[in-house]
């Protein structure tokens, strides 16, 4: 006699609905960003703050720091703009400071360097997006953010550096908010 029982669903699908709050929060954040206006600057800022969240968690060796860095990175960018300098300059200095903290506290070099290179890569694309033509810059910022979702997925799948909740939040935010500027650039 053969068994006719269906295979069970993956663990993340067996969670109660309230267990999916990071995805709901990410979708809400993406929706808010889209409703308030999709601009290359806002999308690029989101990419760089996201990368700084992962970098901070690697440097301090504390996963929860990723959540705190959303606020800290946003404040750094805002203060830099209020001082009359571009937000990305403030976040570049912030990123360098995070790396220095990681080196001084002798954080494991592999995650620190991976997150540092990710910050440089995603941050470089984001800065390029705000410095080039508006339409292409909008598309580039969207591509940078949407591609960050792949980075989020790797972290979610391996359950490394940041809490899974952060990776889930970022995947939802990055895919939806990243697709919006690409779509606007193509049809605009």
Features:
7 helices, single chain, 188 residues
Descriptive notes:
It contains seven helices and no strands. It has 188 residues and is mainly α. The chain has one domain (37-187). Helix 2 packs parallel to helix 6 (134-158), helix 2 runs antiparallel to helix 7 and helix 3 (65-82) packs across helix 4. The longest helix is centred in the last third of the chain and has 25 residues, at 134-158. The mean pLDDT is 92. Keywords: Membrane, Transmembrane, Transmembrane helix.
Can you give me a brief rundown of this structure?
This protein has 188 residues and is mostly helical. It has helices at residues 21-35, 40-60, 65-82, 87-104, 109-131, 134-158, 164-187.
Rg, alpha carbons: 18 Å
The residue fraction in helices comes out at: over 70%
The helix-and-strand class reads: mainly alpha
Strand content: under 5%
* Contiguous runs where pLDDT drops below 50 for at least 5 residues: none
Number of helices: 7
Topology readout:
Elements: H1 21-35, H2 40-60, H3 65-82, H4 87-104, H5 109-131, H6 134-158, H7 164-187
